Fold these 4 entries.
Entry 1:
Amino acid sequence: MLFCYHSSRYFSVCVLVNRTFVYLNDFPGGNLSGQPGGKFTEFFHIYQDGKYCTFPHAIEFLCRPYADIFPILTSYPELENYLSPFMDAWLGGAQEQLQGQIASAKIPLTRMISPQLYWVMSDSEFPLDINNPERPIILCVGNNPDRQNIYGAALGLYNSRIVKLINKKNKLKSAVIIDELPTIYFKGLDGLIATARSNKVAVCLGFQDFSQLKRDYGDKEAAVVMNTVGNIFSGQVVGETAKTLSERFGKVLQKRQSISINRQDVSHSFNTQMDSLIPPSKISTLTQGMFVGAVSDNFDERIEQKIFHAEIVVDSKKVKEETDAYSPIPVINDFIDKSTGKCEMERTIQENYNRIKAEVKRIVFDEKLRIANDPRLAPLLYRK
């Protein structure tokens, strides 16, 4: 599965697992905390032509002792220069600082060690270029609320790779629909929104409130996402989100009349004032089914009324008829042992988990043996 390697070229895997890296002012996507993770996956891309290039193999390799990792990676000319700062720190007696740097990526990644996640991410059942004209695919993935932070990192890794593959010319029209966006970290989301339209990729993002986006993506990236989208549909929201939407919808010149009554006469005065087209108070008191929003148009498809405040009517009867006609999802693998009739899912998943751990141990052993038998590389194993 080359997906693991390609993902590492765009960002470090630790970014997806530990979102706090995003908020660091000096984070460029390849600092000391993140760079090793990408080189581990590049090693598996090189090793035996990517036969073991999966995310679980990379995690298991990362959990090996540093005395095994650094000599193996340094023995490859393609990775030697990238690993030289870490080798210098390791050989120069700065093991504590080096361990602190790598542990910042290692500790969050170890939370992803589970037989179930290894089963999902250890094989390649289908390609991720889902809008390929020769083999279009509909891909649906879901998160587990109980393990949101763990699975959200894995989903973010898949999403980032998918975006790179589908956001290209000469592909089929496609859509990226993400509900509850803050539950996953989507690296490069702002760039996708800005460029996907020209490649016929529609991006639909759903979340409860702007504050969620700021909390999980940071103020800067959240602001870019909010200001880049062209179409907005919003139900009832309050606070800063309602104010932001009201400002986005703009103001309109409204005519006002005031009446003054005293004992002698009644006076009327008229004036005009710029007021919010849809005030925050109106947005914060919308009932179910009522929406406000704004839409964008094209050169050849002009929309005169771009801002709306209306009720979206749902035909419940037709929706029910459609859902009743759904075909059941086919069973890809039922894990049933045909000889005994028992479900062997847990045993099969555990065997896959044990196989990956054994393969990484064997890779480390073979690589150390290769280095030891090479007079030019042998000193790497004995440096202290």
Note: The beta strands are 174-178, 201-205, 232-234, 251-261, 266-276, 290-294, 307-311.
Entry 2:
Amino acid sequence: MAPRICGTSTTLASLDACLQTSSYLAAHATRSFSLTCRNEKITKGRYEMVKWIKEKAMNNFDKNHPTYLGPHVDQPFPSNPLFRSQSVLSESMKNRIYTQVMDHGVAMKAVSEEMQVDVRRVAAVVRLKELENHWKLEGKKFATPYAKAVMKMLPQSKWAQGDMNIPHEPINDIPVHKLSMQQLFVPVSESRHFTREDAAKAFHEGLLSADKRSPQRELIEIERQAAEEGGDRATSIEEFRKEAQEAEEEYAAELARKSELEDAKIKKSRKGRFEFRIKRYNSETVGKYGRARDATGWRYGQALQDRKRGMVKIPTSVP
């Protein structure tokens, strides 16, 4: 609303100023209710993105490997150079690991050395493949399209017989123990040969050396012999595979023997669709407080502390 004119002696200049002020206030008050259509033109950023996709991205696109926007091959996020995408095992590599272990009976350590995959990952692949085959027999459905889409977005490690394959991961890495994270100054004479055993004892009396904590310490011995004695590495690898096979067969036989002994101690009686299992047990071997882990009825009697309010239920330290 325009301001009211108080008197008749108002000049024309003041009237023009009043009209301009009233028009500005009216336009400013109704600007938020404008019915003007949105801008249909493409923004500059979107235009540059479409231009980059048509000119450069399509030329570098590879259907067999993931194409990332970062400057490096393994950098998916351009603004985060610290994040690098790690390779995963391809489906063909998983199938070969499972075939070698389950069908051909090759030791898992030998498969780990041959395909350069950690022995714990080899064991995990075998277990998951066994579960997958079990689900197939049960007729369960799989999210195969989703799995394929995820695998296309990740770099994959592939393995071919007789080729110079790129190692998937280091197979002899060990976790850093908390006792070895301290800084020590140990005086040692120049004539003394300071080994990894001495370094472990310097940190703690009960700490094992890096060689003994390695998942495959036999490979360290092979490399040491090849470096010091100049032996044939291929011959040593063949001996390592034979020893790993014999050790795994002995371990499997020991597990089977223990299982047979346990089954011999149990009397089984089947009544219809039920089977009763009876086993002799010494009631005196229940531990100091009567709550030994392997004792009969250790869950009953004294209440556990896992459901009490205020109790810390998460690990507070890493062993």
Note: The chain has a mean pLDDT of 82.
Entry 3:
Amino acid sequence: MSPGSTPSSGQSTCFRARLRTAAAVVAADPPLPVRGDLVDDLRALAAQSPPEATLVVFHSSVLYHVPTP
């Protein structure tokens, strides 16, 4: 679909179904947003997560603040 075009009825239905499914997944196991200093707090916070968990750190400029190992 090109920018500015209107989705067909089938595309809209599919999109809404996918959006509802995604919302249900997040509602069932919501993320834990934590405010803190990335450099000072991340290591201790990551240590609290279960070993089988996939740790996701997100911010639009997060890598700028992480020192090179």
Note: The chain has three helices and no strands.
Entry 4:
Amino acid sequence: MFIYIHVSKSPKFDRSSEIVSVVVGKRIILPCYVQDASQFKVIWMKMNNSSILTMDDRAVNGDSRVTLLHAYADEWNLQIDDVDEDDAGVYRCVLNNGMYKTLTLQVKTPPQIIDEQSTESYPAPILSGSNFTLKCYGSGRPSPKIRILSFDQAENTKIIGEHNEVILYNVSRHTRKRYECIASNGVPPDVARSFQLTVQYPPEITLLLSTHDNTIYNNRNQLLVDLAQELRIKCQITMYPFGKIFWTKNDIRIDKYQDNYEQYASSYSDNHVVAELYIKQVNYKDFCSFSCFAINDLGINSKTVHLVEKPTSTTSTTTVLTTTISMTSTSSNLGSERLLYSRGSYINMNKQRQRKWPKYSTLTNSTSLNIIHQREAENLRVSISSKGKQY
């Protein structure tokens, strides 16, 4: 007599627990390998809502996305297609003897910007001198990392924060205007939001003076000019919001159609304007003060230039001529005589004396003139030697 004792092996799972992850919208397979489970039933359950998904080799929850993969005796894998965020949670592969394997499904989602908690792309204008807080909050699984960047006019970037909020202190028109928030969590694609700031500020003026010789002067409050020259006075103005611009002469507003003046304005960007006052011909009445005014809701500013007549430089000199004359006579014993004279004195002296030179007299030596500059001529001296007094 033979007695057979059948000893059944206990089922054994490949592991007791496991964590799997998937990107939303993709397919995921939850693995469950059980040895020696032929005597038992296998059930898949989702523990979040205690729902039964499969029993043995068939799906029982009515979700067409859920399939049991049982190609081999030990394989009891659960496949979920087109995973959504609600599929995340805890699953169990359970035997009807009470043994089970636990799987945690993590569904990854790409980052998104939370509109309700973040600064809008074009916030309301910011008053110059105030502080402004840039906010950027994101969602996603895992939670995204936040970076806030600033851009200069050349599109160079700089990271100014890696938190959800960044405070910009004492904002001015020179503060960088463009910013960007980037949220990333390793699940593509990253998401970004740009911020374009608008700053309100009172007028700022730079004075430019252009003369007839094209010389440019910046912010001079006094300028020497010639009569009858033409002159261009320019104001480079920046302000936001845009307001009014006008010119005054001695604090009296200049009419646009005044004869000797013409006014122009040109814009080279949204907030920058060049206003020009053209003086066709400077006259005596223009030697005064000219001012450029700019006004907006936040203030008023002006620049003034004083036109002053350019002085004329004159130099007065007195010229004294010193002449030396040497004479020799061949028919008489006259000797020589020397005269020191000015041009006028010599003429007067000749008129008074009415003297004639002998026919045979000749000038033998050259006459040299030395010009001497001085303020007042000294008294003329005439020195004649005693031998030359009689002819």
Note: Residues 315-391 have pLDDT under 50 and may be disordered.
